[in-house]
Amino acid sequence: MSTDEVIILDSWASPFSARAKIALAEKGIDFESKEEDLFNNKSELLLKTNPVYKKVPVLIHNGKAVCESLVILSYIEETWPSPPLLPSSPYERSQHRFWADFIDKKLFDAGSKIWKSKGEAQEVAKKEFIEIVKTLEGALGEKDFFGGESFGFVDIVAIPFTSWFYAYEQCGSFKMEEECPLFVAWMKRCLERETVSKTLPDPAKVSEFVCMMKKMFGIE
After folding, report:
1. Peptide bond before 57: cis, by omega within 30 degrees of 0?
2. Gap between the Cα atoms of 155 and 183, Å rounded
3. Which domains are assigned to the chain?
4. Where are the beta strands (DSSP E) in the chain?
5. Are 87 and 96 contacting, i.e. CB atoms less than 8 angstroms apart?
6. Rounded Cα–Cα distance for residues 104 and 70 (Å)
7. How many C-beta neighbours within 10 Å does residue 146 have?
């Protein structure tokens, strides 16, 4: 176990923060999670350690801050290389980073459009979201995990977003299991891992949070 001081500036519903927590748990690294109030009262520590974006997650390792979840994952992989989350082949690593980048740019924003819209716009958003997940199903193929038989980097990048899927289903009146059964089967395999199941928030609680945000933004 690590004797280093490792702190995560966190928000319980943030899938981006969950990535860092799952990766540290997979490496067996002890860390302290500090919950941030992102709506009303961001801490001085957050504003000091992430002055550019002022958002979570921030990894603070022995007093040094690392920001942005994909950068944090790479830092964790390089700082604590065992067990590895990425393959040893440079080409295979590049493919993992490609899909991580795809997920980072597409999945959460597409899902957010579902709950932020209604009517015809919501139908368009729903179709776009499902197409993105189907693209990921194609990348997954018949493998257990994105990296093959072992849970790794791309799985850690993607799985936290799935705690928001129930909220999308409730808002958009659809079922992920019917639309993307391969992806849902992958979700269930990931949730069998303690590092994942202990980290991800209750989807029903996330759905309540989304309903609160809809009211806050006047979408209802």
Report:
1. yes
2. 11
3. 6-79 (3.40.30.10), 90-216 (1.20.1050.10)
4. 6-10, 32-35, 58-61, 64-67
5. yes
6. 8
7. 26
User: Any residues with CB less than 8 A from the CB of 62 and at least 6 apart, and which?
Assistant: 4, 5
On whether the CB atoms of residues 35 and 11 are closer than 8 A, the answer is: yes
What's the rounded mean pLDDT across residues 158-172?
Answer: 97
> Residue 113 has which token pair?
């459009």
Cis-peptide into 83, omega within 30 deg: yes
Query: 3-state DSSP call for residue 41?
Result: strand
pLDDT at 201: 98
Bridge partner list, 37: 41
Check: CB of residue 197 under 8 Å from CB of residue 191.
yes
113 CA to centre of own chain: 17
pLDDT mean over 122-138: 98
How many residues in total does the chain contain? 220
pLDDT attached to residue 219: 84
Q: Has residue 196 got a pLDDT over 90?
A: yes
Residue-level pLDDT at 217: 86
Round to the nearest angstrom and report the end-to-end CA distance of the chain. Answer: 48
pTM of the model: 0.96
Q: How many Cα atoms are found within 13 Å in the side-chain-facing hemisphere of 41? A: 1
Q: Positive or negative, the Cα torsion across 184, 160, 100, 131?
A: positive
By the 8 A CB rule, do 135 and 141 touch? no
**For residue 2, what pLDDT band results from cuts at 50, 70 and 90?**
low
